[in-house]
Amino acid sequence: MMASKGRILQLQNYSVNDGEGIRTIVFFAGCPLRCQWCANPEGYTPQNHVLFIASRCIQCGRCTEVCPQGIGWNLNESEARAKCTGCGLCVDACLEQARKNAVQTMTVAEVVHKLESQLLFFRSSGGGVTYSGGECTTQPEFLAELVDEVYDMGLDQAMETSGYFELETLQPVLDKIDLLFIDIKVMDSEKHCQFTGIPNAVILDNIARLGATRKGIIIRVPTIMGVNGDDDNIRATARFVKEHLQDPKMELLPYHSYGADKYTQLGLVYDETLFRTPTKEEMVHLNAIIESEGVQVVSYA
Fold it and tell me: How far is it, in rounded angstroms, from Cα 295 to Cα 235?
């Protein structure tokens, strides 16, 4: 087994929402998009960031004693954040667990060892491993080696991706993925750039090219009222999916603000008033639009 190292946010066991059966999700750090509603902002970059939970801090000063930058107890002051290198020494020194590393370095062997402890659950439920993030394709070499090892274990493999990658580089990896979830945030490229920081041409082109050669693709839409939850966008997305996928399927994921606390813990600003979760009635209506365009609605939630 190769000894490549990857930057990992976490391994989440016992998931049932991101593929068939019981799964472990491997969350990779790093992402080329900056979605304004992102639930995992700690995964924007592959570098470690220290999460600061102010309510647990007793201002004992242990963190300052070990910090090479001399940062005080309040890590979320703008000057402190600017100085922090993410070395994590303060995390080890904090007895109150008021600080937490967002990213850890793991070898392929270490990840596989963690997965082996879940084999009983995978095989009894028809589950397996799902790669997510962040964006797992931002670490292509580590991803490729891990996928090869899990493939040799005979496990089902799924991937959640933004679709923003170089297809030629990722094709050998994708050939071993059983189920591929790809997001389409917004069909209009200018609006996509406004909310995610990049246009969507590469994403749509990758979906079209993949759809021409394989099945096992599900298009996911993180459904946000005021961004992409309007009839026109959902209809345009469904028509694109119908045109380019051999077995067209879509899943609408209602927007949630579960990651709001992470913004506070990273010293970032998150305005929950910008976005709205669709109601059950709105979701039924949007799913009906998808079905009217000849696309199957699926749900792994």
Answer: 10
Which one, of 257, 249, 225, lies nearest residue 299 by Cα?
249
What pTM was computed for the model? 0.95
Q: Can you state the angle between helices 140-152 and 108-116, rounded to 10 degrees?
A: 40
CATH architecture of structural domain 5-45+103-297: Alpha-Beta Barrel (3.20)
Q: Tell which residue, 162, 139, 140, 143, has the closest CA to residue 151.
A: 143
Peptide bond into 134 cis (omega under 30): yes
Question: Cβ distance 43 to 29 under 8 Å?
Answer: yes
Mention every residue, 6+ apart, whose C-beta is less than 8 A from residue 237: 184, 187, 219, 221, 250, 290
Residue linked to tokens 């068939």: 20
Q: Assign a CATH topology to domain 50-101.
A: Alpha-Beta Plaits (3.30.70)
Distance of alpha carbon 197 from alpha carbon 177, whole angstroms: 28
* Domain boundary assignment for the chain: 5-45+103-297, 50-101
Joined together, the tokens standing for residue 60 give 């004992």
CA distance 103 to 185: 26
Per-residue pLDDT of the chain (301 residues; tens, 9 = 90+): 455 899 999 999 999 989 999 999 999 999 999 999 999 999 999 999 999 999 999 999 999 999 999 999 999 999 999 999 999 999 999 999 999 999 999 999 999 999 999 999 999 999 999 999 999 999 999 999 999 999 999 999 999 999 999 999 999 999 999 999 999 999 999 999 999 999 999 999 999 999 999 999 999 999 999 999 999 999 999 999 999 999 999 999 999 988 899 999 999 998 888 899 999 999 999 999 999 999 999 999 7
